[in-house]
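User: GntR family transcriptional regulator, Bordetella genomosp. 2:
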Amino acid sequence: MTDTPESPVSTPRRPRNLAQGLVEDFSERIRGGQIRPGEKLPTESALMRQFGVSRTVVREALSRLQAAGLVETHHGVGTYALEPSGGADFRVDPADIATVRDVLVLLELRICLESEAAGLAAQRRTEAQLADMRRALDEFRACLAAGGDTITPDFRFHLLVAQATDNRYFADLMSHLGSAIIPRTRINSARIAHEDREQYLARVNLEHEDIYAAIVRQEAEAARAAMRTHLSNSRERLRRAQVR
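Assistant: Predicted structure for GntR family transcriptional regulator:
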């Protein structure tokens, strides 16, 4: 199969957050008209070569662009630009999330935002969205067993829950926050919890499974409670670490 000719890409910068760098580059070009609505974006492999980043970074950036309503992806076909809405982007600089206190503040926001998102997702999710969530959880478990990257499937699961609300603003906020919402990208969560990495991540995985099971059953209150428990557990561990 022959790839579609690649769109010209300007020399990429190396920002502190590589996925955010791709998001900003393509957001500017789509909003500025350099990439027209309906135009196909380069393949994942082409983006990896052009920006000098991993497939994980490319996939996170495309997920965030999709959640922002700037592109749509057709599995097995490619990713295409959409007509931009013209709204201003919401920004949280990951560099500003550097301390336990910063992570706690963000968790307070997430508890409010994502608990309600989980409830709405339980009411509105589609079978395709459930399948995507299942794949993210399976990837998390596989990466945990192999000692690999669990941050990407972790963020993807939370973003998919937001997308399943059928309310673009939940997904927009999650997309712009990006993987910085995952506490262990900022601090050593397992050490703070006084657990080894495998024990800590196994518990995170079980909490994700509880959220997913409630969404599958379409039990909105159970989904809200499971998400609140998941995020509150992280908050309480960090609070205890602060007072030691």
